Amino acid sequence: MRSAALFVEGIADVKFLQDFVQYHFGQTLKEGQGIVKCTGNGGLAAQASTFTQFALQGLTNCIIFDADAEEQGTNFAGTKDRIAKELASITETIHAERPDLPVQFDIFLLPNNHDNGDLETLLERIINPENQPLLDCWNAYEQCILAQQERISSRTLSVPIRKSKIYSYMEILHGSSNKEREQAKEKNRDYTKPEDWLLNHNEAHNLYTFLASYFSSISIPSTP
Question: Out of 92, 111, 120, 194, which residue is the most buried by the measure of CB atoms under 10 Å away?
């Protein structure tokens, strides 16, 4: 059984949480039903009617967004405060029409509900340790790019975003044909494959604990 509906920011979040819930709790989350993709920051207000629908079913609306970081103009505390204020405003709007309807919200910010970061931060932390040399190569590439700033002084250089890092990690592992490369795309990844990801990693324990309050567990995950 589940007692919550999940609201996330994008395609990658949908697929990851579908796999995470299936792996730990043996339940399938269908997009638009058990899990809803929002438009990211500021997109929660558009979900007011959906929040109401789930509240009528007795479900808690769980917001699972990125905490983000200083370079994105915010941080964990700032993001949580902004979301809490937005949800308070949405609750007022709902109660203006349905004053007796209990609307419950809960918030979890990736990667672990206390640090700055995002989904990609968590993904980096839960890769199979045998594959760490691949990310080490990428990290060396980033440092190499930044080291060229003095030589290419006419341009401001920046390293690719972490989404590219995770995509490359998957692409490297799954072959060079077009069909194989499709597995690297966010919507096609299989996060339950232990040769790529460890969903029972201790870095994912906070997320597991949060979700366990709303989903019946089929097993207690061990941590490496």
Answer: 111
